Amino acid sequence: MKRRNLLWYSLLFAAGCTTRINSANNNSEQLPVTAPKNLKFAVTDVSGIENLQRDFGVFRTTLEEVLGVKIEFFPVENPTAAAPALLSREVDIVFAGPSEYLILNARAKAIPIIAIERSNYHSIIVVRADSKIKLLPQLKGKTIAMRKIGSTSGHIAPTKLLIDAGLNPQTDFKTVMLDDKGVQALKKGEVDAWATASDRYKNILESEGLSEKDFSIIFTSKLLPSDVFVASNQLPSNFIEDMRSRMVNNQDKLIKSLVSAKANRKYQGSKFITANDTDYNMIREVYQKIGQGNFL
């Protein structure tokens, strides 16, 4: 009897040890790699520490809470400056537009964390209300105002629309980069069409004291690729995965803090989605067609 009891207790003890070992192993698999003490955060289209604080100060504080890591701003001089900063580990996380993402991916092997999908992010091509231009092929031989070189909604996507309409961007139309002043050039007849983002259109007209009745939208693109948060490839892969999981699980809080800044109201109603590299192939194609493939 004593021998049988001893054997029984021995089996229970062994089972208990096995259970504790398996539990410990399972827990260790679920724990993320020890997070760095701090992270440097840059935004490709915001320069200067004051502007970063104004437009992303509340978001940074919320992201610190979500990740449990101290986050410092790292201002960049221009959209492409984030690439060498990532390579030299001066910056760890970058919030980038679609075109800038391709630069960071090509030059610094940046890893996408999560994308933010805007519900009304399209390119539109606008003409004057009295224009005889109704279709994109009619823009052959015309002058088109766009925003700035590399702008997804104000340069790359409109160029793609014109390419798909059968026009050669190097020979069939003239492009002038006028930022938001393109609408005034269109109004005065200095250009034949104007390309901009659908979620900026009304705000630009209002700021310039113009009316929608003076213009006609002749084409609207499909939903454009999303802006994306990317990470340095020198960060541990499971820490990046942990960041992604935490951001998705806390997206309502993060997006609310993001849109609290006036400059980021365009993200109102947005959501975090998986960032798929293939979603950005349209931009790669345009750079090739305009003879700037080496840029990426």
Automatic annotation (TrEMBL):
PROSITE patterns: PROKAR_LIPOPROTEIN. Residues 1-24 form the signal peptide. SUPFAM superfamilies: Periplasmic binding protein-like II. The keyword Chloroplast does not apply. Keywords: Signal. It comes from the Bacteria. Pfam families: Phosphonate-bd. Gene3D superfamilies: Periplasmic binding protein-like II. Belongs to the phosphate/phosphite/phosphonate binding protein family. This is Phosphate/phosphite/phosphonate ABC transporter substrate-binding protein. It comes from Nostoc paludosum FACHB-159. The lineage of its organism: Bacteria, Bacillati, Cyanobacteriota, Cyanophyceae, Nostocales.
